[in-house]
Amino acid sequence: MDPGSPEEERRRQEVIDSYKVVCLCNKIRRGVIQRAIAGGARSLEDVKRQTRAGTGPCGAKRCGPVIAQMLRR
């Protein structure tokens, strides 16, 4: 694959995005949540059980909407 191709750039950006923290309280990264969804998580409760995202002091007020959007995709 051409290192400067749009496909390679998209793949590189996906890797970078997977390291972004979604749940600030528990420091859970996007990639962890994506793997939980790929592994069968179908609701916020499923994601909470599998990753601990959304179980911190804020009660998913910050990460809940992001996780919900990820579940819809």
Task: Describe what you observe in this structure.
This protein is mostly helical. Helices cover 53% and strands 7% of the residues. It is built from four helices and two strands, in the order αββααα. It has a two-stranded antiparallel ribbon. β1 and β2 form a beta hairpin. α2 (30-38) crosses α3 (44-51). The two termini are 27 Å apart. 21% of the residues are buried.
Helix-strand topology string: HEEHHH
CATH architecture: Orthogonal Bundle
CATH fold descriptor: Arc Repressor Mutant, subunit A
* Total count of helical runs of at least 4 residues: 4
- Over the alpha carbons, how many angstroms does the gyration radius reach? 14 Å
What is the spatial order of strands in the main beta sheet? 1-2
Number of structural units classed as domains: 1
Give the rounded overall mean pLDDT: 95
Coarse structural class? mainly alpha
**Number of distinct beta strands:** 2
Relative helix content: 40-55%
Q: What is the CA-CA span between the terminal residues?
A: 27 Å
What portion of the residues fall into strands of 2 or more residues?
A: 5-15%
* CATH class designation: Mainly Alpha
Query: Can you tell me the residue ranges where pLDDT is under 50 for at least 5 consecutive residues?
Result: none
Principal-axis shape equals: elongated
